[in-house]
Amino acid sequence: MKNLMYHEDHRHATWLELFFDLIFVVLIGRITHILAHTHNGHLEMEYILKFPLMFIPVWWLWINHTIYSNLYDTDSKEHRFITLVIMLLMIGLSIFVDVDFEEVFYGFITLYSLIRFIIALLYRLSSGKHEGDRKHAELLGHIYMGTALLGFASIFLPVSLRYYVVYFSLVLDFILPVLLGGKMKSVSIHREHLVERIGLLIIIMLGESVISLVHTLNTIHWNWLNALAAFAGFVLIGGIWWILFDFIYLLFESEKIRKPYVLIFPSLLLFMGLSVIANLIRHAILDDLDVDSFRLLMGIGVVIFFLGKQISYYVLYEKIRKYIIQNTFIVFVICGLSMLLPRNEYMLVGMNVALFTYIAITFRYMIDEEIAVRHLHMKKERIEEKK
Questions:
Q1: From CA 103, how far away is CA 173, in angstroms rounded?
Q2: How far is CA 283 from each of CA 48, 189, 203, 291, 349, rounded to the nearest angstrom?
Q3: What are phi and psi of 213, to 5 degrees?
Q4: C-alpha closest to that of 347 among 232, 240, 239, 231
Q5: What CA–CA distances, in Å, run from 313 to 14, 201, 262, 357, 370?
Q6: By three-state DSSP, how is residue 342 classified?
Q7: Who's near 101: CB < 8 A, 6+ residues apart?
């Protein structure tokens, strides 16, 4: 067994992982920009549908590499070099993100499949590094190599079939490790590391939202409405940070997290929701989107963001499920009423009201005493570590 970071008692994300996340957010920013394309103040349904169709495959690249790093990262020269190559290819992939996806399909799928194949190769090369997990690492490597090749094969198919093949290869990525590896001895994920990686990516995405907000402010002629939208936009970003990180310690503590699925699939909704909300803020400041399109985008963004935020807690903590449902329902009602307002800027303010209402009625006081005591104990341990 080689020296894996998996076995470190107080494991944290490496500097290379943070660098990788920054490159990933650049790619996600290109995809999110699809929702910025308006036609006569209207957001076409075609663009709304293209957003998740391009977001999901790219999100899977991040998840696949993150799980590999979680289990098998040795921070070796080989790992660093291959990861930097993947990052370079991701930059190249961003060139082929376009609303006219049919025109860039060949370049996108070629680079995308190559990245998937290299990540699969990392799994294959890592077999035997983790005690008792050789077969599982080999299995993942073989599955991901096969699905990467299947996705690449779509470039030789008619237009009517190629998209089905690409997404079928992704579905196989999701289900085959569960079906074929279910009875195989495998290690559990490093819980703290995975939670930290998701949290750090959220922070970077929020930072990108602020950058987008500031860039938008440089392109407008000021009036009280776009000033209101800019103020409400920053407050909204701050409120999102608040609700996401106020209870993240529960994910660090939950012993129920043995497999990554309870975290990774909700993260898809969470990241997509953050991207949609960032676009809402931009459109509200620029006032370049009609009210009906803004309402539709707002409804989509709020729903998928809160589902992504709540699902993991709902699955892991049975005692607070009714409060999660109650508080989320209240947010949806307030946002729904806000969508009746006549201007985009007012609706953005309504989202703030919903968010800070959630903060005010949050379930902190409803968490059982045992969890609260563990939280206090964990804080004391961290203080001691810093000393």
A1: 26
A2: 14, 39, 22, 10, 14
A3: -60, -45
A4: 232
A5: 26, 19, 9, 19, 16
A6: coil
A7: 50, 54, 108
The tokens for 41 are: 């103040």
pLDDT in tens, 19-49: 999 999 999 999 998 888 888 888 888 888 8
pLDDT tens digits, residue range 331-346?
A: 999 999 999 999 999 9
DSSP character for 317? Answer: -
Q: Mean pLDDT over residues 86-115, rounded?
A: 90
- Residues with Cβ within 8 Å of residue 216, at least 6 apart in sequence: 230, 281, 282, 285, 286
> DSSP label at 343?
S
Residue owning tokens 């930097």:
84
Residue 237's CB is within 10 A of a number of other CB atoms, namely: 20
Tokens of 45: 């349904």
Q: Look at the block and give the residue holding tokens 């970077």.
A: 204
Q: Compute and round to an integer the Cα radius of gyration of the chain.
A: 22
Instruction: State which amino acid sits at residue 12.
Output: H
39 three-class SS: strand
Beta bridge partners of 42: 39
Can you say how many angstroms the Cα of residue 182 is from the centroid of all Cα atoms in its chain? Answer: 26
Q: CA 298 to CA 351: how far, in whole Å? A: 9
The H-assigned helical ranges of 339-368 are 344-360
Task: For residues 212 and 245, give the distance between their C-alpha atoms in angstroms, rounded to a whole number.
Answer: 22
Could you tell me the maximum CA-CA distance found in the chain, to the nearest angstrom?
Answer: 64
